[in-house]
Amino acid sequence: MGHIVSLLTVVDIPRLHFASPSATVKVKGPTDSPEDSRRESLESFVESRCPSLYGGFKPASWLFNGHLQTAYAVVGDFSKIDKVDYDRTLLRTLDGGTIGLDSTPPTDERTLPDDTPIVVVLHGLTGGSHESYVRAILAPACTPVEQGGLGYRGIVVNFRGCAGVPITSPQLYSAGHTDDIRVAVLHISRRYPKAPLLGIGFSLGANVLTRYLAEEGQQCRLVAGCAVACPWDLVKNAQRLEDDWLHREIYAKAMASNLQKLMGRHAESLAKFPDHPLTKAVPGVMAAKSLTLSKFDNTITCIGGGSSPPFPFPTCWDYYAWASSHEMLAKVRVPFLALNAEDDPIVQVLPVEAGGNPYVAFAVTEKGGHLGWFEAGKSIGDVRRWVSKPVVEWLKAVGEGLAAQDRQIQPTHVVDGFLKEVGRDDIGCKEVEGGGHVIGVEGEGGLLAGL
After folding, report:
1. How confident is the model at residue 445, as a pLDDT?
2. What is the mean pLDDT of each run of 10 residues along the chain (451 residues)?
3. Which of 180, 297, 343, 344 is catalytic?
4. Are 122 and 157 in contact (CB under 8 A)?
5. What pTM was estimated for this model as a whole?
6. Are residues 173 and 312 in the same domain?
7. What whole-number distance in Å separates Cα of residue 448 and Cα of residue 451?
8. Is residue 273 one of the residues assigned to a domain?
9. Which is the catalytic residue, given 203, 257, 307, 325?
10. What contacts 219, CB < 8 A, 6 or more positions away?
11. Is position 448 within any domain?
12. DSSP three-state, residue 240
């Protein structure tokens, strides 16, 4: 009966927002010769290469609103689908912190050409490369072409302390701190200088990606970006989470619980820095019985969510105002696709006009929840993420269709063992021991997935 109802479900056609006129992008011609390239409007580029955005999304009949779609993202069993394994590389940053790069396919599985497009992924709040929403994109993107995939390489940037990455300094991560993705991209571009780098971020990671792209401007090493379920205006969206009883008691507390558990796992590591304000704040947040996201951020993130300056912030609301990405969106200078659902219970304020930025295509579905977009498959009980379709189409379009762009990329050099960008000495990274093989479906037990 449920399958029959699903057949009657109204198709949700995304609303697409472009600046008028949209930017023109340089696309490849019949050959890779620069002489064969031509200019095409971003709107035409998306329309011709991302048909799923125009064909629509049909939500599974039993996941008919944003709360149910979001809940299924958390409690659904995705261990049997989208299996992705990785090789992990650990990077040490100048402040002593550690970030983890998980690369797929593993080197013992197959070898890819050096110019293979690379999908650089930023995960959500307390996620990592194991998250089902990450694997839902990387599985089709990194499956060999002869098996129906794109044949790309995927590299997930796991934030400090997430997905088993150790905490080695009294600094965490946040929605606004971009230096870790900056050095990660620096490392990836140095290792694969011939490969086009395509950025995609989910939720908090989408916010970080948007800010990074905006800050880099014409010097960006990524040739395109995609933001999925980005929280954009952190002040307004956090305020709505606080003001509504249901959102506060379910979503704000669930996210805070994840962060609280994550801090508990690293309390011993942080104890090695007894005089740091972050370490001193940990016992209070660990003892809290009813913690919301804003209370956690007011105690922990506004102190240790990034380097100084601008951290620490007086309150979480000062941090939210600084870290928001909605106003930064106007400064992005690479082709950029944003996808949000109107019924997302966590993200309810969407900057669809993108500050008039002609490089942005902003797609909004009526349904889908937060990192959900589940639709019924061909058989009863088969549920898949619709959002994988337009995202993979976008990755194929920008990875294979764009011609080389004129960008002002700064050269790199190695100073005292750290890879740095010439002219900038405050950030850098180097590989350190650790890492190994990572099985994506195993995940990080004890934390709610999908947030």
Report:
1. 66
2. 49 94 91 82 97 94 96 93 96 98 95 96 96 97 97 98 96 98 98 97 98 96 98 97 93 96 94 96 92 97 96 98 98 98 96 97 97 86 92 98 85 96 95 89 72 78
3. 344
4. yes
5. 0.95
6. no
7. 7
8. yes
9. 203
10. 407, 408, 409, 410
11. no
12. helix
pLDDT at residue number 447 = 78
Q: Closest by alpha carbon to 210, among 295, 44, 32, 331?
A: 331
Instruction: Mark whether 370 is an active-site residue.
Output: yes
Distance (Å, whole) CA 99 – CA 90: 6
| Whole-number Å distance between alpha carbons of 176 and 306 | 8
Assess whether 203 carries a catalytic annotation: yes
The answer to the question of residue 71 being in a domain is: yes
Tokens of 56: 């629509």
Tell me if residue 82 is catalytic.
Answer: no
Per-residue tokens: 351 = 């900057």
d(CA 365, CA 18): 15
Instruction: Name the catalytic one among 180, 247, 370, 388.
Output: 370
Amino acid, single-letter form, for residue 5: V
- Distance (Å, rounded) from C-alpha 392 to C-alpha 200? 11
Token look-up 């088969």 returns 382
Assess if residue 447 is contained within a domain: no
Q: Which two tokens stand for residue 141?
A: 């993107």
Residue 112 CA, chain-centre distance (Å), reads 24
Rounded CA-CA distance 34/93 in Å is: 38
Which residue range is the domain that position 281 belongs to? 234-323
Tell me, yes or no, whether 371 and 267 share the same domain: no
Residue pair 130/163 in contact (Cβ under 8 Å)? The answer is: yes
DSSP3 helix / strand / coil % (the chain, rounded to 5): 35, 20, 40
